[in-house]
Amino acid sequence: MQSKYFFMIGCLTSEQVEEVLKNNLFGHIGCNDGYNTYVYPVNYVYDGKHIICHSQHGAKTAVMRENKRVCFQVDEVKDFMNWKSVMVLGEYHEIVDERERYNAMKTFLGRMLYIKTSKPVLQSTEGKAEVHATSKPVIFRISMEEQSGRYESENA
Question: What's CA 39's distance to the chain center, in Å?
């Protein structure tokens, strides 16, 4: 008996890769400290040239500051027979210029994504609570050097 379903696994065109990057807001970034590889979930925006992300200071940013080579991956999954996946290889660039940071944050707000700041740290000094400054998020972009995409579709 012949199945009524035909499955196709194939490569996405560069236009389809762009579409997946533009239409999504959540991905995973992979980085390596020279020994271990780490994968972290992140929200992002794609501006047509770069993937822009934000994070709090921590292990992820420490690793990427030391080894700027990163991998970024996004999935669009309808079900296990209908999905698209995009992978980007590139380099981490921290955005430190205040004007560039402002423009990146504006891009996030344009997509209704809010940049998280850490809560103030409360420390007790001789019975008095003191509030220490809220840390600014690390805003960074991934310059895209290589990109590829795959898909699976039923009845293709």
Answer: 10
CA end-to-end span of the chain? 20
- Residues near 81 by Cβ (< 8 Å), separated by ≥ 6? 5, 7, 152, 153, 154
Q: What is the pLDDT of residues 18-28, one digit of tens each?
A: 999 999 999 99
Q: Which of 112, 116, 139, 136 is nearest to 54 (CA)?
A: 139
Q: Measured between alpha carbons, how far is 77 from 57 in angstroms, rounded to an integer?
A: 30
Where do the DSSP E strands lie in 16-137? 26-32, 37-46, 50-55, 69-79, 82-94, 121-125, 128-132
Beta bridge mates, 71:
30, 89
Q: Label residue 17 exposed, middle or buried (CB < 10 Å: 0-12, 13-18, 19+).
A: buried
Residue whose C-alpha is closest to residue 23's, from 49, 54, 46:
46
Stretches where the chain sits below pLDDT 50 are 1, 118-125, 129-133
pLDDT in tens, 108-117: 888 765 555 5
Amino acid at 121: V
